[in-house]
Specification:
Elements (H helix, E strand, L loop, with lengths): L4 E4 L6 E9 L15 E8 L3 E4 L11 H8 L6 H8 L4 H26 L2 H7 L6 E7 L8 E7 L17 H14 L2 E7 L1 H7 L1 H14 L7 E5 L10 E5 L7 H24 L5 H4 L5 H10 L12 H13 L1
Parallel strand pairs: 5-8, 8-9
Antiparallel strand pairs: 1-4, 2-3, 5-6, 6-7
Length: 324
Amino acid sequence: MQTPINYENGRGDRIRTCGLLVPNQALYQTEPHPEDKAYSIIIVEICQGEIEKRYCMRAKNEYAINEVKTILLSKNVPLNILELFAQDDRESVKKMLLQYYRRLLVTEQEKIRLYAMYNYERSFQTRGLLPIAGTDEAGRGPLAGPVVAAAVILPMDCEISGLNDSKKISAAKREQLFTAINDRAIAVSYSVVASDVIDEINIYQASRLAMYQALNSLVVQPKAIISDAMPLPDIHYAEVLAIEKADSKSANVAAASIVAKVIRDRIMCELDTLDPRYGFAAHKGYGTMMHMDAIRTHGVTKYHRRTFAPMPEILAIMDKKRIL
Protein backbone atom coordinates (compact mmCIF):
# COMPACT_ATOMS: atom_id res chain seq x y z
CA MET A 1 0.00 0.00 0.00
CA GLN A 2 1.46 3.34 -1.02
CA THR A 3 1.69 5.95 1.70
CA PRO A 4 1.36 9.63 0.69
CA ILE A 5 3.55 12.28 2.32
CA ASN A 6 2.81 15.97 1.82
CA TYR A 7 5.53 18.55 1.32
CA GLU A 8 4.86 22.25 1.66
CA ASN A 9 7.09 24.33 -0.61
CA GLY A 10 6.09 27.62 1.03
CA ARG A 11 5.40 29.44 -2.23
CA GLY A 12 1.91 28.49 -3.30
CA ASP A 13 3.04 28.15 -6.93
CA ARG A 14 1.06 26.00 -9.37
CA ILE A 15 2.87 23.62 -11.71
CA ARG A 16 2.39 20.05 -12.92
CA THR A 17 5.12 17.59 -13.86
CA CYS A 18 5.44 13.93 -14.67
CA GLY A 19 6.32 11.41 -11.98
CA LEU A 20 9.84 11.29 -10.59
CA LEU A 21 11.91 8.53 -9.08
CA VAL A 22 14.78 9.50 -6.81
CA PRO A 23 17.05 7.92 -4.20
CA ASN A 24 15.63 8.75 -0.78
CA GLN A 25 16.98 12.05 0.63
CA ALA A 26 18.91 12.76 -2.58
CA LEU A 27 16.88 15.82 -3.52
CA TYR A 28 14.40 16.13 -0.65
CA GLN A 29 14.77 15.58 3.07
CA THR A 30 12.19 12.83 3.63
CA GLU A 31 11.87 9.58 5.55
CA PRO A 32 11.89 6.39 3.38
CA HIS A 33 8.87 4.12 3.29
CA PRO A 34 9.47 1.16 5.68
CA GLU A 35 8.90 -1.32 2.82
CA ASP A 36 11.32 0.41 0.44
CA LYS A 37 14.84 1.30 1.65
CA ALA A 38 16.32 2.06 -1.76
CA TYR A 39 14.15 4.21 -4.03
CA SER A 40 10.97 6.23 -3.94
CA ILE A 41 8.63 7.40 -6.67
CA ILE A 42 7.49 11.00 -6.38
CA ILE A 43 4.30 11.98 -8.16
CA VAL A 44 4.75 15.73 -8.29
CA GLU A 45 1.59 17.79 -8.13
CA ILE A 46 2.33 21.31 -6.88
CA CYS A 47 -0.97 22.98 -6.17
CA GLN A 48 -1.33 25.68 -3.53
CA GLY A 49 2.09 24.82 -2.16
CA GLU A 50 1.84 21.04 -1.62
CA ILE A 51 3.75 18.16 -3.19
CA GLU A 52 2.35 14.63 -2.79
CA LYS A 53 4.95 11.83 -2.52
CA ARG A 54 4.22 8.11 -2.88
CA TYR A 55 6.69 5.28 -2.38
CA CYS A 56 7.01 2.12 -4.49
CA MET A 57 8.73 -1.29 -4.31
CA ARG A 58 12.04 -2.31 -5.89
CA ALA A 59 11.94 -4.30 -9.19
CA LYS A 60 14.52 -5.57 -11.71
CA ASN A 61 15.15 -4.34 -15.27
CA GLU A 62 17.55 -5.31 -17.98
CA TYR A 63 18.27 -2.12 -20.01
CA ALA A 64 21.84 -1.79 -21.29
CA ILE A 65 23.84 1.11 -19.83
CA ASN A 66 24.03 2.90 -23.20
CA GLU A 67 20.27 2.55 -23.62
CA VAL A 68 19.70 4.05 -20.17
CA LYS A 69 22.03 6.95 -20.98
CA THR A 70 20.32 7.69 -24.30
CA ILE A 71 16.84 7.60 -22.78
CA LEU A 72 17.73 9.79 -19.78
CA LEU A 73 19.28 12.44 -22.00
CA SER A 74 15.83 13.08 -23.46
CA LYS A 75 13.51 15.63 -21.86
CA ASN A 76 10.35 13.64 -21.17
CA VAL A 77 10.94 10.08 -20.07
CA PRO A 78 7.77 7.98 -19.57
CA LEU A 79 6.95 7.18 -15.96
CA ASN A 80 7.00 3.41 -16.44
CA ILE A 81 10.56 3.63 -17.84
CA LEU A 82 11.64 5.72 -14.87
CA GLU A 83 10.17 3.10 -12.57
CA LEU A 84 12.30 0.42 -14.17
CA PHE A 85 15.45 2.51 -13.94
CA ALA A 86 14.77 3.32 -10.29
CA GLN A 87 14.70 -0.38 -9.50
CA ASP A 88 18.09 -1.02 -11.10
CA ASP A 89 20.99 -2.01 -8.79
CA ARG A 90 23.77 -0.67 -11.01
CA GLU A 91 25.62 2.36 -9.64
CA SER A 92 25.99 3.97 -13.09
CA VAL A 93 22.22 3.83 -13.60
CA LYS A 94 21.63 5.34 -10.16
CA LYS A 95 24.01 8.19 -11.00
CA MET A 96 22.43 8.89 -14.41
CA LEU A 97 18.97 8.78 -12.89
CA LEU A 98 19.89 11.25 -10.19
CA GLN A 99 21.36 13.60 -12.81
CA TYR A 100 18.10 13.35 -14.76
CA TYR A 101 16.06 14.32 -11.68
CA ARG A 102 18.31 17.23 -10.92
CA ARG A 103 17.91 18.56 -14.46
CA LEU A 104 14.17 18.11 -14.19
CA LEU A 105 14.12 19.87 -10.83
CA VAL A 106 16.04 22.83 -12.28
CA THR A 107 13.53 22.98 -15.13
CA GLU A 108 10.57 23.02 -12.74
CA GLN A 109 12.19 25.66 -10.56
CA GLU A 110 12.66 27.80 -13.66
CA LYS A 111 8.98 27.35 -14.53
CA ILE A 112 8.02 28.53 -11.05
CA ARG A 113 10.32 31.56 -11.35
CA LEU A 114 8.94 32.49 -14.76
CA TYR A 115 5.36 32.06 -13.54
CA ALA A 116 6.05 34.52 -10.72
CA MET A 117 7.43 37.04 -13.23
CA TYR A 118 3.90 37.45 -14.60
CA ASN A 119 2.31 38.31 -11.24
CA TYR A 120 2.07 42.05 -12.01
CA GLU A 121 0.82 41.26 -15.51
CA ARG A 122 -1.91 39.03 -14.06
CA SER A 123 -3.11 41.85 -11.85
CA PHE A 124 -3.76 43.87 -15.01
CA GLN A 125 -5.21 40.86 -16.82
CA THR A 126 -7.88 40.32 -14.14
CA ARG A 127 -9.10 43.86 -14.86
CA GLY A 128 -9.17 43.29 -18.60
CA LEU A 129 -6.15 45.47 -19.29
CA LEU A 130 -4.46 43.66 -22.17
CA PRO A 131 -2.04 43.82 -23.87
CA ILE A 132 0.65 44.78 -21.38
CA ALA A 133 3.98 46.38 -22.28
CA GLY A 134 7.17 46.48 -20.27
CA THR A 135 9.76 49.20 -20.73
CA ASP A 136 13.33 49.64 -19.52
CA GLU A 137 16.51 51.44 -20.47
CA ALA A 138 20.21 50.65 -20.78
CA GLY A 139 23.11 53.05 -20.51
CA ARG A 140 22.35 55.54 -17.75
CA GLY A 141 25.78 55.38 -16.13
CA PRO A 142 28.40 55.35 -18.93
CA LEU A 143 30.56 58.35 -19.85
CA ALA A 144 30.01 57.76 -23.56
CA GLY A 145 27.38 56.55 -25.95
CA PRO A 146 23.59 56.86 -26.05
CA VAL A 147 20.92 55.75 -23.65
CA VAL A 148 18.64 53.14 -25.20
CA ALA A 149 15.12 52.23 -24.10
CA ALA A 150 13.01 49.33 -25.29
CA ALA A 151 9.35 48.37 -25.03
CA VAL A 152 8.13 44.78 -25.30
CA ILE A 153 4.70 43.13 -25.28
CA LEU A 154 4.85 39.39 -24.57
CA PRO A 155 1.90 37.01 -24.70
CA MET A 156 0.61 36.25 -21.21
CA ASP A 157 2.61 33.48 -19.48
CA CYS A 158 5.00 33.20 -22.42
CA GLU A 159 7.82 30.99 -21.12
CA ILE A 160 11.26 32.09 -22.33
CA SER A 161 13.75 30.10 -20.28
CA GLY A 162 16.42 32.27 -18.68
CA LEU A 163 14.45 35.52 -19.05
CA ASN A 164 15.70 37.89 -16.36
CA ASP A 165 17.23 41.27 -15.62
CA SER A 166 19.81 41.85 -18.38
CA LYS A 167 22.47 42.67 -15.77
CA LYS A 168 22.23 39.12 -14.39
CA ILE A 169 22.81 37.48 -17.79
CA SER A 170 25.98 36.99 -19.82
CA ALA A 171 26.40 38.76 -23.17
CA ALA A 172 26.11 35.46 -25.06
CA LYS A 173 22.90 34.54 -23.22
CA ARG A 174 21.46 38.02 -23.84
CA GLU A 175 21.94 37.52 -27.58
CA GLN A 176 20.09 34.21 -27.44
CA LEU A 177 17.26 35.73 -25.43
CA PHE A 178 17.15 38.76 -27.76
CA THR A 179 16.37 36.39 -30.65
CA ALA A 180 13.79 34.46 -28.61
CA ILE A 181 12.06 37.67 -27.51
CA ASN A 182 11.81 39.00 -31.06
CA ASP A 183 10.50 35.64 -32.27
CA ARG A 184 7.80 35.28 -29.62
CA ALA A 185 6.78 38.83 -28.66
CA ILE A 186 3.60 40.47 -29.87
CA ALA A 187 5.51 43.72 -30.37
CA VAL A 188 9.05 45.04 -29.81
CA SER A 189 10.46 48.53 -30.27
CA TYR A 190 13.38 50.61 -29.07
CA SER A 191 14.63 54.20 -29.08
CA VAL A 192 18.12 55.71 -29.01
CA VAL A 193 18.86 59.10 -27.41
CA ALA A 194 22.33 60.44 -28.24
CA SER A 195 24.92 61.83 -25.84
CA ASP A 196 24.43 65.47 -26.91
CA VAL A 197 20.72 65.24 -25.99
CA ILE A 198 21.67 63.65 -22.67
CA ASP A 199 23.93 66.63 -21.95
CA GLU A 200 21.14 69.02 -22.92
CA ILE A 201 18.25 67.60 -20.87
CA ASN A 202 20.08 65.34 -18.31
CA ILE A 203 20.18 61.54 -18.19
CA TYR A 204 16.95 61.08 -16.24
CA GLN A 205 14.88 63.04 -18.75
CA ALA A 206 16.75 61.41 -21.64
CA SER A 207 15.90 57.95 -20.26
CA ARG A 208 12.24 58.94 -19.91
CA LEU A 209 12.24 60.39 -23.44
CA ALA A 210 13.65 57.15 -24.82
CA MET A 211 10.93 55.16 -23.02
CA TYR A 212 8.20 57.41 -24.39
CA GLN A 213 9.55 57.02 -27.92
CA ALA A 214 9.87 53.24 -27.61
CA LEU A 215 6.33 52.85 -26.22
CA ASN A 216 4.80 55.13 -28.83
CA SER A 217 6.55 53.15 -31.59
CA LEU A 218 4.93 49.82 -30.67
CA VAL A 219 2.80 48.47 -33.53
CA VAL A 220 0.24 47.34 -30.92
CA GLN A 221 -0.92 49.90 -28.37
CA PRO A 222 -0.85 48.54 -24.82
CA LYS A 223 -3.59 49.12 -22.27
CA ALA A 224 -1.16 48.73 -19.35
CA ILE A 225 2.53 49.52 -18.98
CA ILE A 226 5.07 48.37 -16.41
CA SER A 227 8.24 50.44 -16.16
CA ASP A 228 11.45 49.98 -14.23
CA ALA A 229 10.93 52.68 -11.59
CA MET A 230 10.20 55.40 -14.16
CA PRO A 231 6.97 57.44 -13.83
CA LEU A 232 5.48 58.19 -17.24
CA PRO A 233 2.96 61.00 -16.67
CA ASP A 234 2.57 61.80 -20.38
CA ILE A 235 1.16 58.36 -21.18
CA HIS A 236 -2.63 58.76 -21.37
CA TYR A 237 -3.64 55.72 -23.42
CA ALA A 238 -2.59 53.12 -20.82
CA GLU A 239 -2.36 52.59 -17.08
CA VAL A 240 1.26 52.84 -15.91
CA LEU A 241 2.85 50.97 -13.01
CA ALA A 242 6.39 52.01 -12.05
CA ILE A 243 8.16 49.33 -9.97
CA GLU A 244 11.61 49.35 -8.40
CA LYS A 245 13.80 46.61 -9.93
CA ALA A 246 10.98 45.65 -12.26
CA ASP A 247 13.48 44.05 -14.64
CA SER A 248 13.77 41.14 -12.19
CA LYS A 249 10.05 41.08 -11.26
CA SER A 250 8.17 41.49 -14.55
CA ALA A 251 8.67 39.33 -17.64
CA ASN A 252 7.88 42.19 -20.02
CA VAL A 253 10.29 44.58 -18.32
CA ALA A 254 12.99 41.90 -18.22
CA ALA A 255 12.51 41.39 -21.96
CA ALA A 256 12.74 45.14 -22.55
CA SER A 257 15.92 45.35 -20.48
CA ILE A 258 17.53 42.64 -22.63
CA VAL A 259 16.50 44.28 -25.91
CA ALA A 260 17.78 47.68 -24.75
CA LYS A 261 21.08 46.24 -23.51
CA VAL A 262 21.76 44.22 -26.68
CA ILE A 263 20.97 47.18 -28.94
CA ARG A 264 23.18 49.52 -26.93
CA ASP A 265 26.07 47.06 -26.81
CA ARG A 266 25.89 46.71 -30.58
CA ILE A 267 25.96 50.50 -30.97
CA MET A 268 29.05 50.72 -28.76
CA CYS A 269 30.78 48.06 -30.86
CA GLU A 270 30.00 50.15 -33.95
CA LEU A 271 31.50 53.23 -32.27
CA ASP A 272 34.59 51.18 -31.47
CA THR A 273 34.95 50.42 -35.18
CA LEU A 274 34.62 54.12 -36.01
CA ASP A 275 37.15 55.17 -33.35
CA PRO A 276 39.12 52.23 -31.90
CA ARG A 277 41.32 54.40 -29.67
CA TYR A 278 38.90 54.29 -26.72
CA GLY A 279 38.01 50.60 -26.51
CA PHE A 280 34.24 51.16 -26.57
CA ALA A 281 33.60 47.51 -27.47
CA ALA A 282 35.29 46.38 -24.26
CA HIS A 283 33.86 48.77 -21.66
CA LYS A 284 30.71 49.99 -23.48
CA GLY A 285 31.46 53.59 -22.48
CA TYR A 286 31.78 53.06 -18.72
CA GLY A 287 34.49 54.87 -16.78
CA THR A 288 37.06 52.09 -16.60
CA MET A 289 40.76 52.81 -16.11
CA MET A 290 41.35 51.92 -19.76
CA HIS A 291 38.68 54.38 -20.87
CA MET A 292 39.89 57.20 -18.60
CA ASP A 293 43.48 56.77 -19.80
CA ALA A 294 42.28 56.96 -23.41
CA ILE A 295 40.33 60.16 -22.71
CA ARG A 296 43.38 61.80 -21.11
CA THR A 297 45.55 60.71 -24.02
CA HIS A 298 43.24 61.35 -26.99
CA GLY A 299 40.72 63.83 -25.64
CA VAL A 300 36.92 63.88 -25.62
CA THR A 301 34.88 62.82 -28.65
CA LYS A 302 31.40 63.71 -29.82
CA TYR A 303 30.26 60.39 -28.36
CA HIS A 304 31.17 61.40 -24.80
CA ARG A 305 28.78 62.93 -22.28
CA ARG A 306 30.43 66.19 -21.35
CA THR A 307 28.23 66.83 -18.30
CA PHE A 308 29.13 63.53 -16.60
CA ALA A 309 31.78 63.63 -13.87
CA PRO A 310 34.73 63.72 -14.21
CA MET A 311 34.32 64.99 -17.78
CA PRO A 312 33.92 68.71 -16.90
CA GLU A 313 37.17 68.57 -14.90
CA ILE A 314 39.01 66.80 -17.73
CA LEU A 315 37.68 69.30 -20.27
CA ALA A 316 38.81 72.21 -18.06
CA ILE A 317 42.32 70.76 -17.80
CA MET A 318 42.47 70.25 -21.57
CA ASP A 319 41.34 73.87 -22.14
CA LYS A 320 44.11 75.16 -19.85
CA LYS A 321 46.70 73.14 -21.72
CA ARG A 322 45.51 74.59 -25.03
CA ILE A 323 45.75 78.15 -23.64
CA LEU A 324 49.27 77.52 -22.38
